[in-house]
Amino acid sequence: MDIDYDKLRHATVMVIGCGALGNEVLKNLVLMGIGRLTIVDFDYVEQGNLTRSILFRKSDVGKRKVDAAASGMKDINPDVEVNAVFGDVAYDVGLGLFREADVVVGCVDSRWARYCIQRLALRAGKTWIDGGIIELEGTARVFEPGHNCYACSLGTVGIDELRRRMPCSGVIRRKEQAGHAPTTPIIASIIGAVQAQEAVKVAAGMKAAQRMLYYEGEHLTARIIDHRAWDDDCPLHETWQPIETIEGISLDTTVEEVLKHGDMLLNEPYVDYITDRATDEKTMVMCAAHLVEDFVERHEKLRYKPLGDFYQHEYTTIDTAFPYKRLTLRSLGLPEHDVIRLCKGDALRYVEIINTY
Fold first, then answer.
1. How many Å apart are CA 29 and CA 340, to the nearest integer?
2. Residue 210's pLDDT band (cuts 50, 70, 90)
3. In terms of pTM, does the model score above 0.85?
4. How far, in Å, are 25, 100, 267, 271, 291 from residue 254 at the CA level?
5. Which residues contact 297 (CB under 8 A, 6 or more apart)?
6. Mean pLDDT of the 122-147 span
7. Rounded to whole angstroms, how far apart are CA atoms 301 and 57?
8. Taken in order 162, 163, 167, 170, is the CA torsion positive or negative?
9. Which residues contact 204 (CB under 8 A, 6 or more apart)?
10. What percent of the chain is predicted at pLDDT more than 90?
């Protein structure tokens, strides 16, 4: 395999998840000479992370994982450019960041996060490499548009568990409490190396292997599986292009200004108020849909009630009837570098939000 290292120096790789697996992937990519890395995580460094995450130090406890990982990578290669995004891939990562990447690597621990990565990767037309570890087992697999789709690979059980989070840290804590030594660093190093290898191939202009590696450490066995999962009827199979920019549209642009270019189809609903099912009492929330639960939990009067006790009044399309035209795209919950869909008549435009920083 002849690698074009000059391409690697000019390549951008996005890595989502900076835990044990993400640390191994990032370390390998920096050592291979990748010039720019976009890293995404919403968590903080804990004491327990230090024994299984090569980029973290004792002084990093309490810091954002993305910041600690960025610092650790700079120690290895001061010339590497790191864009650290503190947030959830489901809501805080704009499609524009996926478009900038040559390849995406997923080091996440839930079906929902993988589903969100797949959705964004398909919209941007990007290949992504998934990794998963638990105890003595691990998998690495490649998802390429037109060949493999994570959503298509889910069976009935997978769909039912789609929104559940099963973090690796929970497994590790249970093992430690039972007196067993955690094996996550070993499995992470094996699976992370395979993920990094495939990412390097794509970044260098080569083709990733359309296979899945399954490694089982207890009996020192490995299987290579040719896999194809692509259902033409899958709703995730949409590529957003061409994507353009419109001068003046940034996160600080008001809805009123955006509407001059067409109605806006929101990626996530915007909720202006919720209504108590029992009393019909309304409470203004004015936030993106995924933030409503947190709003209720923090509300002095509402926090004792489950979210299911309320109706949500929400908007999925913003047009001239939208009553809050002074709101900005930022206040609607859109992240930096996101892409908005504008509809004017039968014409649909994809417009990337200009970064104002």
1. 31
2. confident
3. yes
4. 40, 26, 17, 17, 21
5. 303
6. 94
7. 42
8. negative
9. 3, 4, 5, 7, 8, 11
10. 79
Picking from 39-53, 143-157, 289-303, which range would have the lowest pLDDT averaged per residue?
Answer: 143-157
Nearest to 76 by CA among 34, 31, 15: 31
d(CA 257, CA 245): 14
> Which tokens sit at 311?
């109706």
pLDDT tens figures, 319-345: 999 999 999 999 999 999 999 999 998
User: pLDDT at residue 215 above 50?
Assistant: yes
The CA radius of gyration of the chain, in Å to the nearest whole number, is: 22
Q: Give the rounded percent of residues in the chain with a pLDDT score beyond 70.
A: 91
**What is the four-CA torsion angle of 42, 48, 49, 51, rounded to 10 degrees?**
180
Q: Regarding beta strands 211-216 and 221-226, do their DSSP bridges make them parallel or antiparallel, or are they unpaired?
A: antiparallel
